[in-house]
Write a structure and sequence with these properties.
heterodimer; A: 76 residues; mainly alpha; 3 helices; 5% strand; B: 155 residues; alpha+beta; four-stranded mixed sheet; two-stranded antiparallel sheet; 7 helices
């Protein structure tokens, strides 16, 4: 992966997103986190206290085979 | 289980530092630490996959209050690629081999420190989400890429 620190042009950012980014930048981190982290029950996913997968591919496959589509964990 | 809180992120930072665990916040939780205004459920940590780091990680997790059996501790020490913990004071995903990032050391060199939290560079967060190619990530990527441009413009 190549990181190009000059490849940024805020003029391409939709104004409403830019306003949100600037508003977030004015908030202290604890407040940003309070707004950002939410908890809702995710069926199947939240029903076991522990899961481990040998490979990330195994995890992706498990998500596709076991989670409801509407959770959005399936690959497109 | 309540939502993940700043205080808990501090506990991770402080306890992991005490145990010298090498890790990075990744995913949307990492982006949020960088200032990305969005919502997420859990914290995702990209952890260096080495036996020594795994042992340090297990000790740190137990100190934080995660109830790990010896078998589960063995999974983590051996570096299973993905471990999902819901047996502690908060939910945590441990990612040892995220899609889109070849080596931990590369991401570590590019990391960003936010109030002492080690966070993946936005380009690594984007690369990981793009490589995953999930519906929920595809939806968030355009806004995340715009945030990356905004974030770089302020550096």
């Amino acid at each position: 992966m190549i990181i190009n620190p000059k490849a940024s042009d805020v003029s391409d950012i939709p104004p409403e997103w830019l306003a949100e980014f600037e508003a977030a930048a004015r908030r202290p981190l604890p407040l940003r986190m309070r707004y950002a982290f939410i908890k809702t029950y995710k069926p199947v996913m939240d029903d076991a206290p522990y899961r481990a997968f040998d490979t990330t591919a195994d995890y992706r496959r498990w998500c596709e085979e076991n989670l409801p589509d509407w959770l959005g964990y399936g690959r497109v | 289980m309540a939502a993940f809180e700043y205080r808990q992120a501090q506990e991770i930072r402080d306890v992991f530092a005490a145990h010298a665990v090498r890790y990075l916040f990744i995913g949307k939780s990492g982006a949020i630490l960088l200032g990305f205004p969005d919502t997420t459920q859990d914290a995702d940590l990209f952890v260096e996959d080495s036996p020594e780091n795994g042992r340090r990680l297990v000790a740190a997790l137990r100190q934080l209050g995660f109830e790990l059996t010896d078998s589960q501790a063995g999974d983590i020490e051996r570096g299973k690629d993905f471990v999902q913990l819901k047996n502690g004071p908060f939910d945590l995903d441990l990612v040892f081999a995220p899609d889109g990032i070849e080596h931990f050391t590369d991401a570590w060199q590019r990391r960003v420190e936010v109030e002492g939290f080690p966070v993946c560079h936005p380009d690594d967060i984007i690369a990981s989400k793009a490589a995953t190619n999930r519906a929920k990530d595809r939806e968030s990527l355009p806004r995340l890429r715009s945030f990356r441009d905004y974030w770089l413009s302020r550096r």
